[in-house]
Amino acid sequence: MPPPLVNKKPRNESTVKDKTGTLDDPLKFLDQDYQELRKSCITNKKRFVDDKFLPDSSSIDPKKKLELDLDQIKWLRPSKIVADPQLIVQGVSRFDYSQGSYLGNCWFLASVGALTFKKDVMDQVMPADQSFGKDYAGIFHFRFWRFGKWTEVVIDDKLPTINGELVFVLSKTSNEFWPALLEKAYAKVCGSYADMHAGYVSEALLDFTGGIHVCFELEKPAIDLWSLMDRAAKTKALMACGSHQGVSSDLRLDLTLTDIIILI
């Protein structure tokens, strides 16, 4: 006797899986198509200005949560900050950047640091088909995992500065701008830079990979934690750590490691 046809698809239903939301065909955040926008800018000899994430206070701190004088902010393209801007200088590294003074997004930057160990994953988030060189049009794109789908986020390269210096993430090589542009793209997804203030490393790692995470609290560590970390490293899993803020108002002090996060 043949099995019942309960799970058989109707004849008129397509058997081809929907590929929208994959790395090859990501969703378009706010319906912005990178290729079309870039082509239009090049054709019209204009540099892109993002009307969905405007270079003004609404993109930084609309609810005035940060201790930041927004009147001092001037949005500049990298070419107005340095003479020879580059997206990447001699590869990406966790040592390329440092946290800015106004925004508590160390959780995001720690996740970025983990990301730099995996070039293939980094290339998923920050496509290699962009630079400040040939056909530069002031437009960049990044990809994040949102609600079970890969999503492409388009930004212009206007960055908030005070007295010619970047306000948020700082590059240790003055003409390297991938950290600031990645941070801006993530801020756009969040709603504003201020909306990145405080978060969890696991959240950003999920957005970078679509993977699942396991968190180990070091107050009650697993007996075989070192073995687990060793196996995770051998299987090329992303790993990061977190800590709670201490009693000091200085975020650089009183930091005791409390969590290990492994992303599978």
UniProtKB/TrEMBL annotation:
Superkingdom of origin organism: Eukaryota
Domain Calpain catalytic: start-end pairs: 47-239
CC annotations in GO: cytoplasm
Biased composition (Basic and acidic residues): 10-22
GO molecular function: calcium-dependent cysteine-type endopeptidase activity
Region called Disordered, residue ranges: 1-22
PROSITE patterns: CALPAIN_CAT (PS50203)
Biological processes annotated in GO: proteolysis
Active-site residue numbers: 106
Record family assignment: Belongs to the peptidase C2 family.
PANTHER family hit by this protein: CALPAIN (PTHR10183), CALPAIN-14 (PTHR10183:SF302)
Record's protein name: Zgc:162184
Higher taxonomy: Eukaryota, Metazoa, Chordata, Craniata, Vertebrata
